[in-house]
Every structure is written in structure tokens, then in C-alpha cells.
Design brief:
With 415 residues, the chain is mostly beta strands. The chain has 2 domains: 2-343, YVTN repeat-like/Quinoprotein amine dehydrogenase (Methylamine Dehydrogenase, Chain H, 7 Propeller); 356-414, Sandwich (Immunoglobulin-like), CATH 2.60.40. Helices cover 4% and strands 54% of the residues. It has 1 helix and 37 strands. The strands form 10 sheets. It has a 4-stranded antiparallel sheet. The radius of gyration is 23 Å and the shape is globular. The chain starts with a helix and ends with a strand.
Length: 415
């Protein structure tokens, strides 16, 4: 009960201040492929977590794919990069809209109606490591070949203005890793202006934009890790080492104004200050080896996934003080966490004086106020109306709603 009410409080803050709310959290579970048996043991799935009711359910299964590597949201759709396919789903119904074959697909980005996809595969050479598709139909617009495009396997993508920056790491050819960031002009679809990250900047695994600069977290030759800062004005890269270890950086993410990261197989979560390009120390409250890190943009809560890569997955949620709020079980290898944030249209000025009980409720809710009762979705859509003191909300899906009477508004959680 306390956890549910905490979420309600966050929802009130969102409605009153940012006018945005967290509708759902999408989890891309990468599944488990047994390479010794050459068979899929656990399939790739997409799960949806409802932060209001704190319930999780799997909403899509992607069969016949050995793994998945990325999920992004754009408008009313989301896209999944899974082994040899790109799939487009409806964000609300989770139904498949379109799909296209793209062997070796790794990461995705959408801008200007175009879907950008990077490619790379172990012991496989492609004639193009960078594809551009129509974001609506998934028809291929251009496969940028290795003559004019990236010459090696590419991974993360960051869009700034009319440029998509591409991390080129050649991370699947052991001993020949690269450290390059190139730029794709989204208007002309020409690639160039490659920036060399230097000998300590090889194998960029993550690419982020912060305060007008690009940052990469690099796995080097798997004997350590580093961070590179790239000026978008001068094109100059500054690389500093994070650690010398038997493995690279396992996971990393922006959190507020810091970069947090964890060395593979370690349980210490570290914080890196990008303003001074130096590690400032461990983050208290974390003693788990994580697979994915992501900060939720509305409340600032921090989502950290955990897995053994073959039998289970768990997502832990921490608040700003690094206190664990809750956790929920997923399928195997929850490798991407994405937040579906939506506007709370017209739902400002929530009133504390409107008595509604019980709250949370299952079927019936009583509104202690005379007048027409109006029930809205968080996007402002009118769902129910009644002049009776008791409302039947059994037809509504689980989640948060707004009840208004004579201009006064409050929130209700339908269990």
C-alpha cells in the first residue's frame, strides 16, 4: 500500500509541474541461446512494467531470434533490433506493425522520419555496417557501403540536430578493435567526419550526449575501459582511462549530471564527473552486478537490471538517495530499459480537497462531492461520467486516473 501511494504522490507532482507522466516502462529481454546446442532455450520478449500498479507482464514474444540488442520508442510505436530483424510495434496494443530483415542489426535511432540501424556480427563481414530505413514502412532507403561509410562493425547511435553520430568499434574482431565516431548527415545521407578516439579509446560500447558534447564509454581491447569526451565544435577527442581490469566496462548510463558505470563482473557502481573527466568514487547502496542502467526522466528513479544470462532477470528501482523502492522479475537477460513518458494534457491543479475512497480501488469508488463526476485518462481523455455518488470503474484497465467534480480534481488508482 505504501509503495502504491508513493507512486500516486509522484503522479501528482508530475501533473502539477512537468505535465508529463510515466505511462509504462518497456523491458527488452534478450533471452537465452545455447551456442553449444545451437538452440533457443528462452525466446526474446518485450515486457511492460506499470509504475502505478507496480505490475509487470510480457507483451510480445519474438520467436526464432537468438538474441536482441536494442529497443527505442518513437511516437506511438517502438522498434526492436533482434538478431537479424528490425520489428516495429504499436506502443499501446503491442501488435506488430512491420518488420524487415537486417542481419547483424545492433542499435537503432529515429530522426526526420528515418530509422538508422548499425550492424555487426562475430566472424562476419558485411558490405554495409550502416542502414537507413523509412521509419513508417521499414523500407530500406539506403545501405551505406564500406567505401563511403563505416568500414567496420558499428554500434551505438546519438542524434544531435541533423546529424546521427555512429560509434564504430569493430568489437567482433578480437585484437583489431577500432575507436572511431563518424557522422551521418540525415538530410543528404552522406557519412564522414570520422573522429579517432586514440589508442585508449578503442571499442566504444556506449555513446551519449551531455551538455553539448559527445561521450563514449570504451572497452578498449577488453583489458580495461575508458571515457572519451568529444567536442562537436572542434571534433577533438579527450580520452581518460577508467580502470585496468581483465574485462571492460559492463554497463554505463547518464544519471543527473554524472556518468555511472560498472566494470564487468564487479558489484561496485562508480560515478564519473564529466565536468572534470575523473571518477569521483563509488555510489552507496549498490552491491549487485548489473546488466543495464537507466534513469527515468520524470521522477529521476534509477532502474538497474540483473541477470545470470540463462535463467532469470530482475529489475531493481532506486530513488535519488539510492534506496531501493521495489524490484520486479522479468524474463532472462533484461538488457534494455526504455521509458514511455506521455503528456498529462489539461490535468493541472490537482485538488487535495476532493474525497475519493477507497483509493486504490477495484470496482466501485465513492466520491464525497455533489455534482457530475468525470473520470479522465492521464492524457485528458474523458472515460466516464455520472451524477451518482458511487462510480463503477470495473471496466477501466489498471492504472492511474483523474476524477473531476465542479472543477476540483484528484487522482485514483484502479487496481
Amino acid at each position: 500500500m505504501k509503495k502504491v501511494l508513493l507512486i500516486v504522490g509522484l503522479g501528482l507532482s508530475v501533473c502539477m509541474q512537468a505535465q508529463n507522466y510515466l505511462h509504462q516502462v518497456l523491458i527488452l529481454n534478450e533471452g537465452y541461446f545455447d551456442y553449444n546446442l545451437n538452440q533457443i532455450v528462452t525466446p526474446v520478449t518485450v515486457g511492460s512494467y506499470n509504475p502505478t500498479t507496480q505490475t509487470y507482464q510480457e507483451v510480445s514474444t519474438i520467436n526464432n531470434m537468438r538474441f536482441a540488442s536494442d529497443l527505442i520508442i518513437d511516437g506511438n510505436a517502438y522498434y526492436v533490433a533482434a538478431d537479424s530483424k528490425i520489428l516495429k510495434y504499436d506502443l499501446n496494443a503491442h501488435s506488430l506493425i512491420a518488420e524487415v530483415n537486417c542481419p547483424g542489426v545492433r542499435n537503432l535511432a529515429v530522426s526526420q522520419g528515418k530509422l538508422i540501424a548499425t550492424r555487426g556480427e562475430y566472424l562476419t563481414t558485411y558490405d554495409s555496417y550502416l542502414h537507413v530505413y523509412d521509419a513508417n514502412s521499414l523500407q530500406l532507403i539506403q545501405a551505406i557501403d564500406t567505401v563511403v561509410g563505416p568500414k567496420w562493425a558499428a554500434q551505438n547511435i546519438a542524434v544531435v540536430g541533423d546529424k546521427a553520430y555512429i560509434a564504430v568499434n569493430n568489437g567482433y574482431e578480437w585484437g583489431n578493435e577500432k575507436g572511431i565516431v563518424g557522422a551521418l548527415d540525415l538530410t543528404t545521407l552522406t557519412y564522414g567526419n570520422e573522429i579517432d578516439l586514440g589508442p585508449d579509446g578503442k571499442n566504444p560500447d556506449n555513446l551519449m550526449v551531455y551538455n553539448g558534447k559527445l561521450y563514449t564509454v570504451n572497452n578498449k581491447d577488453w583489458s580495461g575501459s575508458s571515457v572519451s569526451e568529444i567536442s562537436l565544435v572542434s571534433g577533438v577527442a579527450n580520452t581518460v582511462n577508467l580502470a585496468n581490469a581483465g574485462t571492460g566496462c559492463g554497463t554505463s548510463a547518464l544519471r543527473d549530471d554524472k556518468l555511472v558505470y560498472q566494470i564487468s563482473m564487479e558489484t561496485t557502481l562508480n560515478e564519473f564527473d564529466m565536468s572534470v573527466m575523473n571518477t569521483t568514487g563509488p555510489v552507496v547502496g549498490h552491491q549487485t552486478s548489473y546488466y543495464e542502467l537507466a534513469q527515468e526522466p520524470v521522477s529521476g528513479n534509477f532502474y538497474c537490471s540483473e541477470t545470470d544470462f540463462f535463467s532469470y532477470g530482475t529489475v531493481h528501482i532506486f530513488d535519488g538517495t539510492n534506496t531501493e523502492i521495489t524490484q520486479f522479475a522479468t524474463s532472462t537477460s533484461p538488457g534494455t530499459v526504455v521509458f514511455d513518458v506521455r503528456p498529462s494534457v489539461g490535468l493541472t491543479e490537482i485538488s487535495e480537497g476532493l474525497a475519493v475512497y477507497p483509493n486504490p480501488a477495484n470496482d466501485l469508488v465513492t466520491v464525497d462531492h455533489v455534482g457530475e463526476k468525470l473520470v479522465y485518462a492521464l492524457d485528458g481523455t474523458l472515460l466516464l461520467s455520472s451524477n451518482e455518488p458511487t462510480l463503477n470503474i470495473s471496466s477501466l484497465a489498471s492504472g492511474m486516473y483523474v476524477i473531476a467534480v465542479n472543477g476540483q480534481k484528484t487522482t485514483i488508482v484502479k487496481q
